[in-house]
Amino acid sequence: MSPCDTTTRHVYFRQLLDDQLLNLISYPLNIFNTMVSFALLVMYIKPSIVGGWSSPFRATLPVTLFFFLANVFLVIVPIIPPSPGNEPYADLPYYLHVVVGFGLVGLGGVYWLIWAVLLPKFGGYTLSRREELGPDGLTRKVFFKIKNE
Fold first, then answer.
1. At residue 134, what are phi and psi to the nearest 5 degrees?
2. DSSP assignment, residue 51?
3. Using CA of residue 23, residue 73, residue 58, residue 109, what is the dihedral sign?
4. Cβ–Cβ contacts within 10 Å for residue 71, how many?
5. SS3 59
6. Shortest CA distance to 30 belongs to which of 78, 61, 72?
């Protein structure tokens, strides 16, 4: 095996790995961006859902709608089978990053269910949130446990 052959193989596998990693990283981000922009649209259309809360940072409705539609596009298009010869991976199914992306989002949901619902229920405590001032002068919300009596 010549050094050129080894370099060619390295470049091929590196490009394949980069494409897969990019797809695996960006797809869950598109799912979350879709959910966040949908929530922002709901807040614009029906502000009573959030109890009158108003964010100090606001995007206009057209910008939020465009962001939502762009992310819906980015979530749906990878599910559509590519035309022959345009598959993103040579040896893997084209929908692999879609399945992995939804799997990661699902794992996050299971983690939240265990951490925020089941553990407090069976551990005899409730989660509460308070605002703390950090050493950098910024405020943040911190969760803490309150034992049930």
1. -80, 170
2. T
3. negative
4. 20
5. coil
6. 72
Please tell me the pTM assigned to this model. 0.70
User: With bands split at pLDDT 50, 70 and 90, how would you rate the model's confidence at 71?
Assistant: very high
Is 67:37 a contact under the CB 8 Å cutoff? Answer: yes
Can you give the residue ranges of every domain in the chain? 3-123
Amino acid found at 68: F
Instruction: Show Cβ contacts of residue 37 under 8 Å, excluding neighbours closer than 6 positions.
Output: 64, 67, 68, 71
Tokens of 13: 């596998």
29, 95, 98, 112 from 145: Cα distances, Å: 30, 41, 36, 15
Cα–Cα distance, 29 to 26 (Å, whole number) = 5
**DSSP three-state, residue 133:** strand
CA 44, 49, 54: angle at the middle one, nearest 5? 55
Say whether 92 sits in a helix, a strand or coil: coil
